[in-house]
Amino acid sequence: MNASHRILVCGVGSVGERHIRNLSTLGYHHIAVYRARNLPFRDLNFSIPIYTDLKEALTDFAPSVTFITNPTALHVPMALEAARANSHLFIEKPISHNLEGIEELCRMLESNHRMAMVGYMLRFHPFFKQLKAWLNEGPSGVLGRPIFLRTTWGEHLPDWHPWEDYRQSYAACADMGGGPALTLSHDIDLLVWLFGAPDNVVGLPNSTSPLNINVEHSIDILLGFSQGVTANVHLDFCQRPPSRVWELVCSHGQVRLDILAGTLTRWESTIGEIHTPQHGPITPVDVQTLPENFDRNDLFLEELRYFFLCLNTGERPMPDISIAAESVRIAQRALSKGLT
Predict the structure, then answer these.
(1) For residues 94 and 170, what is the distance between their CA atoms, to the nearest angstrom?
(2) Domain span at 85
(3) Per residue in 200-232, pLDDT tens?
(4) Residue 316 lies in a domain
(5) Quick one: CA torsion of 318, 323, 329, 331, rounded to 10 degrees?
(6) What is the pLDDT of residues 60-76, one digit of tens each?
(7) Do 210 and 79 sit in the same domain of this protein?
(8) 92 and 234 part of one domain
(9) Number of domains in the chain
């Protein structure tokens, strides 16, 4: 670990503060903050230099790594400034609310021999790592060939940050890059990680709930992949209690992940094979639960360890900007409401 990195964190909402705490836990103490207003931190109990001018921060503090954790619509403009200052980048998901400036940012990083990673920390979740390992076994593996899957992620937006008016949050505002298609794009990124970019995307946004926001309240996205796999992704800001489930059907069995319950269940069942009543009810062959000491913050810590390991070894971190941009591209296609 190279703890000598000078790290600038741009934007200090809840996720920015989380990254600062985690960086300190991992031994990185040369940290400064850029924020437009010099306001007190909500949940940090140690002193950090604060800059209210970005150019001054990039010049005087001269970060070797810049964390972009401000509202989505500001990610790329701020990342471009940091890249010009010869800094590596860690950008919170999604990479942006559109694709403007993405190619320029990639060219600039390549020209300066700098790297960037986008923070989709669910790639480090043990259940999704297990699912990817099973799928990597191919048609002869325990799952066989994937056929289709359904994912649901629904949460009640007003409960996210009870200390603020949800109507003013970035997730509720179109001009800041909000809406579930972008804000909850982890599931989209995971599908790209598992199956690659989709060939077809159909989106059906819904804005009929009582929420007072100017983005979609929910969206259903159908995706078709080159291997013949199809997926139905549901994302919403409405559900209370929340729901967070994946269901995958394959030629040799099924998998169900309940993220909030902390369970992964696999059944063996060959599609097309006749099952008589004598077989009895099908029972799971594999049930996994998260350890009692599992903490969601462990995923954020693991992605930071991976990111800095890549910086130290020169390995390209994933997802990089070009891969993460695919989730934005899918969200845009889905929000267009048509078959694309």
Answers:
(1) 12
(2) 7-114
(3) 999 999 999 999 999 999 999 999 999 999 999
(4) no
(5) -20
(6) 999 999 999 999 999 99
(7) no
(8) no
(9) 2
Tokens 């190619």 found at = 103
Judge whether residue 285 has pLDDT over 60: yes
Give a yes or no: residue 21 inside a domain: yes
Q: Which amino acid is at 123?
A: R
CB 6 within 8 A of CB 34: no
Asked whether residue 262 is domain-assigned, the answer is yes
Do residues 335 and 220 lie in contact, with contact meaning Cβ atoms separated by under 8 Å? no
Could you read off the pLDDT of 68-109 as tens digits, one per residue?
999 999 999 999 999 999 999 999 999 999 999 999 999 999
pLDDT of 278: 64
**Same domain assignment for residues 162 and 289:** yes
Q: CA 110, 197, 184 angle in degrees (round to 5)? A: 90
d(CA 260, CA 246): 11
187 close to 151: Cβ distance less than 8 angstroms: yes
First and final C-alpha spacing in the chain: 45
DSSP at 30: -
Instruction: Tell me which DSSP letter residue 94 carries.
Output: S
Q: Does the pLDDT of residue 38 top 90, yes or no?
A: no
Does one domain contain both 158 and 99?
no
